[in-house]
Amino acid sequence: KECEYLGKVLRSPVRPLVAILGGAKVSDKVAVIDNLLNTVDVLLVGGAMAYTFLQAAGVAVGASLVEADRLDSARHLLDQAARSGKRLLLPVDHRASTSPKGDAPVQTVGQAIPAGLLGVDIGPDTERAFAAEVATARTVFWNGPMGIFEIPAFSHGTMAMVDALVGSGALTVVGGGDSVAAVVQSGKADKISHISTGGGAALEFLEGRTLPGLAALDA
Questions:
Q1: Which of 52, 81, 166, 200 is the most buried (most CB within 10 A)?
Q2: What is the pTM (predicted TM-score) of this model?
Q3: Using one digit for the tens of pLDDT, what is the confidence trace for 91-111?
């Protein structure tokens, strides 16, 4: 079932194909993004990894988490998307705070995050923009939350993506522990076409790697 659904995303998607990627680290997803850009029609990037992309694009991100050693990778992927005519969309606004622990006020800011604030979730305009893209999709792949969803005040963007997938009518595939946890937490897991339990192996599959176990089965 994993191979069937992930294969539909990677090799034979019903289009438009929209991929949503989030989570903390660009470093975990560089190869996946690189490979998905050959396949997707639209790539939506949220979560903390978006701040590395935004900084790479010259946008201020305040005190947000940035992988400084991945800025060149992020620039390369932005350039690759532009060259290939693929739409790679970054957040246009954010929920931001002075603390990632949920013990300080949260405010909505524009795409540039003021000094002293850190992004903790995508903002409401980004939720609507991403949901509008999902609404046009026939296939959706989602890996990685849009914010620190474990804290209720920072969970709005992630839960908005759950609702967007459920309401899309598309073939929907969700992978990654945090994304799966969010879907389960929402109580709407039964409305997702396939929830991947493949973890890192699923990401390696989407990177285009040959997985030893699958190669043995095909032998």
A1: 52
A2: 0.92
A3: 999 999 999 999 999 999 999
